[in-house]
Each structure stands twice: as structure tokens, then as C-alpha cells.
Amino acid sequence: MHFQRDKQPPPYLNRKDQYRMLGMIAMLMLIAVAFDATRKPENWNWFFAMGNDPAPQQELRELDLDDIDYQILREAPLAPETFIAVAEAEVEESSEPGGEGEGVLTRIPSHLLKDISDQRLGLLRKENEALQQVLKQVQASSADELMEAARRDVGYRVLNVEPDKHRGELLFLEGTLWRLATFPFGDPASQEDDLAQAWLFTSDSGNNPWMVLLPQKPDGIDWGNQIDRQVKVAGYFFKRYGYATEQGAYVAPLLVANSFTMPPVMPVARERTEDLTIYVIGFLVGVGCLFGIMVFWFVRSDRKFERSHLAEIADSRFDASPETVAELQNLEAADPVEVFRSMESD
Q1: Fewer CB atoms < 10 Å away: N or C end of the chain?
Q2: 223: CB partners within 8 A, 6+ apart
């Protein structure tokens, strides 16, 4: 006697259905992991960085700069037949070359800067000749020579507290260039004598800028605001320059330099951002394809099951025969309340 064996086991033991359930569980786990990753703000930094040029980040130290006097001095009228005698600061003059920059003055002689006045709005007329002498000095040397001879131990606060002590010294700055504009100088009717006016921030100046005057615009930088470019510069400290803003009048240390030295902008951060974007997009496309394949497999499996003999057997189990329906009509109906009451009385 030979018994024919079904090719497929019942649905609850079907290997394909087991794989299907495992696939659904894997999809739910993947969705849960995706929800957990997307709820963290730091995982979206790559998205908000798309399309933005990488800007060099500079850490600004919190310094006590409140004791610096930023007030603009205003000249009071003098009484008739009176005058003011200003004592020159006793500073040590040095014209010795520094480092490899042979012939570079490490300090401008004090007699050339005797007419300089700190904390005054704009450039005074009596200071034009002194500025012209300093410009000639910086143009006589290259930017690299000036940097070799410049001092690197004079900070923002020291320079503002003791400007007379450091006036004319060759100083080194490294910071973030924020603004570059023209500075009228020389013949008012001509723009050929105009200088380049740069505003930059250093790590020890906080939100207070430095001002640097250059004979001409440096190559590789355009005029404008919010340049946000790392630069190095060596120049002679000229004065504490007063400038007006919408919030009032402020003072910034003014240096006269030859040009900037700019480190090359490395597009590493940009390339990393683009590569990360490609990986993320590829991952999302892969997940979408996986979900699509699993859904297609599920639908195809359902349709195949509907056309199988097993589906007919499963559906027939839920179909009542006419005899069964007739027997249900002959059953005696009873009120459940009456049944419980009779049980209680017994």
C-alpha cells in the first residue's frame, strides 16, 4: 500500500513562511535602529553641512578684557595763551635686524611717531606723514622677512594697556581675516594712493578686532565682509585707532604691514562631506531596494499560495456545509440570564 505524501507541510510548519517571519522581524529591527539613529541631532551634521564651504574653526579664549579703555578721547578747548606739552614715552629704540631678515627694523624710531595720538576717531592729519614713513619701511622688506624679525610675545591686552611702550614695534599676528576694504589715503582726488584696510580676530582678542593697513590688496582675497580666512601677518604697531559703528565708537590696535601670508585652503573637509553623502545615499538606496525585494517576495508568495491546493483546503475549513447550518437552526435557544438563575436556585 502506498500513501501519497504532500509536497509541502502545513502552513505553520512551512519553511518559506518561517523565512518570511524572520524577514519581517529583521525589517522591524532595521526600522527600530533607523529611528534610534535619526533621533540624535549629531547624526544630522553631515546633512546641514551639504553645500557649505568648510570654514576654519578658531577657538576663542575667554579673557578679561573689560579693564581695557575703549573710550574715544575728545580734545577739550584750551584757554587762551595755553598749550599742552606731551612727554614722549621712554622706549628703547632698536634697528638691529632680527632673524634672517637682515636690514629689517624691529622698531620704528620714536621721533617718527611723535605726533601719534591714541583713541582718536579716524586718522588725524598730523599722522599722515608718520604713516607714510611706516609704509615705506614695510615696502622695503618682504612679508617673509618681516615675519622672521617680528615679535610674537605681545598680545592684544598688553598692547592696549601699554600702547606707548610698544608703539613702532614689529609684531606678528595670526588670526581670522573677517573684512577687507579700501582705506582712503594720500590724494583725495585719486584712488591710486588708497590702502587696503583689513579687520581680523585673534585667539586673544575675543570679539574685539585688530586693524591692519596694507599698501595694496593681497592676492587671492577679494574685497568684502565675512571672509573668514586664516592669515598670518607681521606689521608695525601704529596706534589705537578709533572707529565708529552703529553701536558707538570703539578702538582697535592698528598695525601697518606689507601683506598677508595665507595657508592653503585644503578641501579635505569638503571631500569628506561629499563622500559621506554618497555613502548615506547609497545606504538609503540599498535599504529601499531590500524592502522592495522583500515586499515583492511576500506578495508573490501570497499569490502563489492563493493559487495552490493548500489554499482551497484552508478556505474549506471555514465554510459551513448546508447540513451544519440546518442543525444550527434546530438547536434550542435559551436565555443566559434564565440559565444562571436556574443554576443558582439549584
Answers
A1: N
A2: 180, 181, 182, 217
Return the C-alpha cell found at 31: 526600522
Task: List, as one string, the DSSP characters of 31-71.
Answer: HHHHHHHHT-GGGGHHHHTTT-------PPP----TTS--P
Neighbours of 297 (CB within 10 A): 14
What stretch of H or E contains 229? Answer: strand 224-245
CB-hemisphere CA count at 13 Å for 317? 5
Determine how many CB atoms are found less than 10 A away from the CB of residue 15. Answer: 9
259 shares a domain with 304: no
Q: How many domains does the chain have?
A: 2
**In this structure, are residues 289 and 276 in contact, taking their beta carbons and an 8 Å threshold?**
no
Max avg pLDDT among 209-213, 288-292, 327-331: 209-213
> Is the same domain home to 222 and 297?
no
Instruction: Indicate whether 214 belongs to any domain.
Output: yes
- What is the model's pLDDT at position 317? 61
User: Of how many residues is the chain composed?
Assistant: 346
- Domain hosting 248: range is 110-266
CA 161, CA 179: separation in Å to the nearest integer? 25
Query: Are 339 and 288 in the same domain?
Result: yes
pTM > 0.70: no
In a domain, 169, yes or no: yes
CA-wise closest residue to 169 among 182, 156, 159? 159
What is the pLDDT at residue 271?
47
Cell, residue 125: 592729519
For residue 150, is it within any domain?
yes
Which candidate, 226, 230, 228, places its Cα nearest to that of 260?
A: 230
Give the count of beta carbons closer than 10 Å to the beta carbon of residue 248: 9
Per DSSP, the three-state class of 130 is: helix
Q: Which of 158, 176, 246, 252 is nearest to 213 (CA)?
A: 252
146 and 237 co-located in one domain:
yes
Single-letter amino acid code for the residue at 254:
L
Say how far apart CA 9 and CA 204 lie, in whole Å.
79
